[in-house]
Design a protein that fits this description.
The protein is mainly α and 186 residues long. The protein is built from 5 helices and no strands. α1 runs antiparallel to α2, α2 packs antiparallel against α3 and α2 crosses α4.
Length: 186
């Protein structure tokens, strides 16, 4: 059940990542069009989807960590039962003072504790690796600048207007030239 939940969370995180990429494409499109407001909306969605994917991945990791803790508890219960047997074995061996048999029982006892140490260390590392991070508020502007740079566009420093793409500038120049020729002809 726990494995299923973790896999489901991983699938949802991948879907969020896919949605993030879709929104990123829309962000680039709006920056190219020069539509700052819609670009901001898409940048906000990109960051939200990125954070959602990150949070789902963290949650899946925590679910795995909890599953590990449960497994450790089950193992501890088994070790407790084994220790009971070892203690009984030691008592019986002590009564007979059979050093060879006592050595075998103690080796078994130490082996079980080494296995427990390895499992506990693994769980501590897994749980310690799960940390929460927060994104700074200015990330929307940073993302918009990065996307604009990747698309070969330049954002104006005041973020009020986006630059006009080169194709529109060429069209405007052609229209201005035609208007100028028309005026001179009249």
């Amino acid at each position: 059940m726990v494995s299923f939940t973790a896999k489901m969370l991983d699938r949802q995180a991948r879907k969020c990542k896919k949605d993030e990429n879709k929104e990123l494409a829309l962000l680039k499109k709006e920056i190219a069009k020069g539509n700052t407001e819609l670009a901001r909306v898409h940048a906000d969605k990109v960051i939200r989807k990125k954070n959602e994917a990150l949070n789902l991945t963290k949650l899946a990791s925590r679910v795995d960590a909890v599953a590990g803790r449960v497994q450790t508890a089950v193992t501890m219960r088994q070790v407790t039962g084994a220790m009971t047997n070892v203690v009984c074995g030691i008592e019986n061996t002590m009564k007979r003072m059979n050093l060879e048999q006592m050595s075998v029982v103690m080796d078994t006892f130490e082996g079980q504790f080494e296995d427990l140490d390895v499992q506990t260390g693994y769980m501590e590392n897994a749980i310690g690796g799960v940390t929460a991070t927060t994104m700074p508020q200015n990330e929307v502007d940073l993302l918009m600048h990065q996307v604009a740079d990747e698309a070969g566009l330049v954002l104006k420093s005041d973020m009020q207007e986006l630059p006009v793409p080169q194709e529109e500038l060429r069209e405007e120049a052609v229209l201005n030239e035609r208007l100028h020729r028309h005026r001179n002809a009249v």
